[in-house]
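INTERNAL AUDIT FORM
Audit reference: QA-55
Scope: verify that the stored structure record matches its stored sequence.
Auditor: D.O.
Record contents follow.
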Amino acid sequence: MIPKKITRKNLLDAIKEIDPDNIPSHRKIKKYYLVHNNEQYPPKYTISLANKFANGQELSHKEFSGGWSETNAFLDKRGFVIKGL
């Protein structure tokens, strides 16, 4: 489950930390991507990093589900654009 304490600002801080050319291989875009300033970011990885800013540590990708059931809906509600490959 994604912690409700994660804000849009936390997500933007996480995006600033992500180097699109240096994303860990196991965290790369698989099906959907978040679009911000014409760059593509992996939604689950973005949320995992955002948790560092909200709660002090990176959130394990195993603690929440991907796709529209959780991850994409969470980002969409916070004003982010999600697209599919």
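Auditor finding: record pair retrieved intact. The radius of gyration is 11 Å.
Action required: none
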